[in-house]
Amino acid sequence: MAARTTKARRGKKKVLVLVPFPMSGEHLDLRIAQSKTLDFGPDIEFHYKPVKWAGTNFVGPYDYVIGDFTMLEAGLSAQEDGFDAVCIDTMSDSGVAALRAVLDIPVIGPGRATILTALLLGDKFGMLVMWDRWLGLYKKVMDELGVWHKYAGFQSIATPPDRFSLLGGEERVVFPKLLKAGERLVKENKADVIILGSTSMHQARDFLAANLPVPVISPGPLSYGVAQ
Predict the structure, then answer these.
(1) d(Cα 219, Cα 223) in Å, to the nearest integer?
(2) Where are the alpha helices (DSSP H) in 43-134?
(3) Is the dihedral of CA 146, 134, 69, 75 positive or negative?
(4) pLDDT, tens digit, for every residue of 74-127?
């Protein structure tokens, strides 16, 4: 599937964002919206390329292996195609290690980048997640980084995510649940930085940041900032 481009112009640095599920149209536009949440200036553009196939919803080792393989396949030609960096659009950091082994351009996984950024902002970070079955994704990254002593824990709203529509149309229901869970992370878990547990949760970031007393990190835009 061809990559979709946001306002492409000659002379700009190009970042390839690999989307972990096959999608197009309005569903892909919801992913593209992440690059519009911050002002990255006139000298960088983001191109979004979905993988050709995927597992279910990154809920176990089978999905993890498929994610690594499909991300590798989607990003393998990034450097040859003229991209200056690659960002992975999933907190699983799928394919990061493999792509770094074959490309000479930066390959940025939001899982690792977000956790390390959280440690710059506070002492203990917590994960705000849609459902508990995502916890294996974070365990993998935290094992690699060795940061369990800085992990305050997680709070979940026990709501299976919609990987295509994201949070669209569910704001009145989902946002208050996320806010209450975020408040528990601060009060009960003692987190002084909150990480949204998925790039698919980016639509809730501004609402949560305005209503919680600690920094709230949205992993997708954070990874774009690292690329910049």
Answers:
(1) 6
(2) 61-75, 96-102, 110-121
(3) negative
(4) 999 999 999 999 999 999 899 999 999 999 999 999 999 999 999 999 999 999
Q: List all residues 6 or more positions away from 27 whose beta carbon is below 8 Å from its beta carbon.
A: 164, 165
Q: Can you tell me the distance from the alpha carbon of 59 to that of 56, in angstroms, rounded to the nearest whole number?
A: 7
**Residue entry with tokens 């690792």:** 112
pLDDT digits (tens, 9 = 90+) for 39-62: 888 899 999 999 997 777 667 778
Is the model's pLDDT at 168 over the cut of 50?
yes
Amino acid at 125: F
Summarised one tens digit per residue, pLDDT across range 11-39 is 789 999 999 988 888 888 888 888 887 78
pTM over 0.90? The answer is: no
Residue with tokens 């939001």: 110
Q: 12-23 as b/e, with b when 16 or more CB fall inside 10 Å? A: eebbbbbbbbeb
Q: Which residues of 94-132 are buried (b: 16+ CB within 10 A; e: fewer)?
A: bbbebbeeebebebbbbbbbbbebbeeebebbbbbbbbe
Q: What angle do CA 10, 12, 14 make, to 5 degrees?
A: 110
Of 138, 16, 142, 158, whose CA–CA distance to 89 is shortest? Answer: 16
Classify residue 172 as exposed, middle or buried by CB count within 10 Å of its CB (0-12, 13-18, 19+): exposed
Q: Residue 26 is encoded by which pair of tokens?
A: 């309005």
